[in-house]
Description:
The termini are far apart. A hairpin with a 6-residue loop joins strand 2 and strand 3. The mean pLDDT is 96. This protein is mainly α. The protein contains 21 helices and 3 strands. A 3-stranded mixed sheet has the order 1-3-2, sandwiched between helices. Bound molecules: zinc ion. Zinc ion (ZN) binds next to helix 10 and helix 11.
Amino acid sequence: MNINEAKEKLAVLQSRMSAYNHALELIFYDEATAAPKGTAENRGHAIGILSEELYRLSTSEETLEMLEFLDENKEELSDKEKRMVFLLLKDIRQMQKIPMNEYTHYQELLTAAFAAWIPAKENSDFELFRPVLEEIFETNKRFAGYCAPDMAPYDYWLDQYEDGLNMKTCDEFFAALKNRIVPLIEKIKAAGQVDDSCLWGSFPESSQAELSSFLMDTMGIDKDHCILGTTEHPFTTSIGSHFDTRITTHYMEDNFASSMFSVIHESGHALYDMSSDDSLAYTVLDGGVSMGIHESQSRFYENLLGRSRTFTDFLLPKVKELFGDENPKLAAATPEEFYKAVNKVEPSLIRTEADEVTYCLHVMVRYEIEKRAMAGELEVKDFPAEWNRLYKEYLGVDVPDDKHGVLQDSHWSGGSIGYFPSYALGSAYGAQFLKKMQEEIDTDACLAKGDFSRINEWNKEKIWKFGRFYKPDEVLERVLEEPFSPDVYADYLEKKYSEIYGL
Ligand code: ZN
């Protein structure tokens, strides 16, 4: 094999892998949006075979030989090719440590788990989900042992979602944040509560869909390459490459703000995914680099921009036009009242509905449970009781049932253990990105006009276009030009909410 042949094979391999991923991602999207509920087994059959083929392709001797040859001849590779080889080899060396039958069985387990989670949540019956969840935690522990025998299993999984992340970093990060957030929440509780009644009423789905479309246009989403579906749990996925991105939302007929902010959040993910440089399509460098950086973008648009005074002022006339006739309180709301309503702080049960201030405490509950379960210190059967205890301790709320408690998120049914901390990290990254951006751009002037072009361009040039080329810590370093600190996020929260609550 000469170097040019190997490079050609590298391109073909990634192109074929993206085709298998295209099929798998489409199946997952269909499962969440449109597939009839009795079809899980049928889908599991196809997923099993496609995953097996993908596994064979990416771990074959021929593949490994080619990658190792390129790795040995690094000096002949471009920087992009070096990074591709690094990422592929890292994945393949790990995957090879997992026996193929176990890998395939795991893919089928996840299909069964998602199918079990839905009725379990609907009926608030943890027992329906417990057996598959036990198997998922056991399998994730076992896989971590195969892939990184010298690492604690939970550290292995944290690192999978955020390169370099471990329990030590998370513990320090959460402790620093908790020290600042808990006293802030106490002060807010002691102050008078803001009135959010203008967000509640009757909001037909068709009008909310119109608002979704308006938001996607405002944010600069290219609808020729991105479409919105509806699901129980909103998410974003790209199909095969950044040329086809799907986002979803969940409409509540009595509250339009829930879907409104979901659409802004998922559109933030979509902008990031869709803006990889075109030369990265059908390679492993296409798309977002890590979950933390991804959440830094989605939560950036949702909260730092979406819930800012200038943007809510911009939105108010539009929501009045769409919903005002049937909702007198909204029709009468002043810009100040609307801004305060969408920023109401109240310890609550559901993470995805949580305000900016209490949000990280929801993440900490999940982090504690995952950490202890992966260390063998907590059994899955005890999750509901532990969940309820931690919600009482951290947020001071009583969990009435598992639907509003331990069964609320879909992540564990998808095998995503170690994902949650990235939401909190992303929120904090985002605050520091905004501080940096505001040195160059008057974001408030842009938002007042509903014009995202300069903001998007900044993100594209600094973060999005590179896809997975830079590691997460390199992205932070390049963009921030100073060390990351959770205090920037805490400062932002203190300033904003002291104004809103008159603290
Ligand atoms: Zn997200």
